[in-house]
Design a protein that fits this description.
Layout (H helix, E strand, L loop, with lengths): L2 H10 L18 H15 L13 E4 L1 H16 L7 E4 L10 H5 L8 H11 L25 E8 L3 H13 L4 E10 L10 H17 L6
């Protein structure tokens, strides 16, 4: 278990299932989406076996994992199947088709560069015509109403910042309860720095607190 997953589990008190999925370029879109949706459904089906409440299961991830979590939340709402109680999207990819000012502003000399994003998208969604589909670019979904409440975290110095924040705005416009938190002094990938950065530790503890609140049983 990675330090970031362990930190979220420890601070939130939630049981965390870390999921593998097929990776591009060997397994391009939509294979990772299909695997993530199947994994979510499997966790819900096995909730009691895993010591979890099937009515209080969230989904989350960072970067590409944030993208997959957003898409699974969208698909779950659309197909009427089991749906997450909460989606936690940490500096997510939400648009594989367009570009955003932060991508130009922070194109170089940071942990994640614009060229890295372009390379990842070209491998994940090699067919440009697929990038306008909402499974590839959830921000382009026609209807976001009914998806799980969202806690979205962006980093101040991240080329993905603006598309994550624009996705939060779209969710709010659709009536989805959404909290947006920009970690202003952070770069992309900061949740992996908990072993070396006190600022990252504080940010992860804050995310864990949001998970704890978002998955709390309803008040009686």
């Amino acid at each position: 278990m990675t330090s970031r997953v362990a930190s979220l589990a420890r601070h939130s008190g939630a049981a965390v299932v870390s999921v593998d999925y097929r990776l591009a370029p060997e397994h391009p879109f939509p294979a990772p989406v299909d695997d993530s949706l199947a994994a979510f459904r499997d966790v819900v089906a096995r909730a009691e076996e895993l010591g979890a409440d099937p009515d209080r299961i969230g989904i989350g991830g960072d970067s590409a994992g944030g993208h997959l979590s957003a898409v699974v939340s969208l698909l779950a709402a659309r197909d009427g199947g089991p749906a997450p109680t909460l989606q936690v999207l940490i500096y997510p990819v939400t648009d594989t088709q367009g570009t955003w000012p932060s991508k130009d502003l922070f194109a170089e000399k940071l942990l994640l560069e614009a060229a890295d994003i372009d390379w990842a998208i070209e491998n994940f969604v090699p067919e440009p015509s697929d990038r306008g589909e909402d499974r590839a670019s959830p921000i382009l979904a026609g209807d976001l109403s009914g998806v799980a409440p969202a806690y979205i975290v962006t980093a101040g110095f991240d080329p993905l910042r603006d598309e994550g924040e624009a996705y939060a705005a779209r969710l709010r416009e659709a009536g989805v309860p959404t909290t947006l938190r920009r970690q202003r002094g952070m770069t992309h990938g900061f949740i992996a720095f908990v072993s070396i950065s006190s600022a990252a530790q504080r940010a992860v503890a804050e995310i864990a607190g949001a998970i704890q609140v978002g998955l709390a049983p309803p008040a009686r």
